[in-house]
Amino acid sequence: MEQEEDLSWAPAWLISGSSANVTLRIGEVATVLLHVAARFHYEIGTLEDGDVVGYLPLGDTRLSAAESNHSSGTAIDIKPGWYPSGARGGFFPQELAVIRDILDECEGVVQWGGDVDRAPAEGHFEIGVPPGDIRLVRVAEKIQGWNQRPGVGAGRR
Length: 157
What we know:
This protein is of the alpha+beta class. It contains three helices and six strands.
């Protein structure tokens, strides 16, 4: 009998405003990547259940070397069928502007697969700093503050 993997460190989270769930590492990582996904949902394209891939166990056939952060629960792929690895040009200019705004808002903590030269993955977003990095903590606290105070934060200019 095969033993189930303990994923208490990476539960499934509902992406705000959508029917999409994603499995992510608890804490700051989830706060930041859920924010990225929610902004994508509201400003680029509607996300439904099955549209976002988060944690993948080591050995999963969907896991490539470039996407290894999935096995630590620190990466998401949004609509991977729409934005396949190796392809560019999946976003309109106004959508790219939103992505750049999201990345700026995350202060360098999130890396986007569309910025990778050799093997772009435009639907891929990952935490690009080590666990416990003060920048990750700061960005997560900023986002949590927005979530607790309606009328402030992303999209409220």
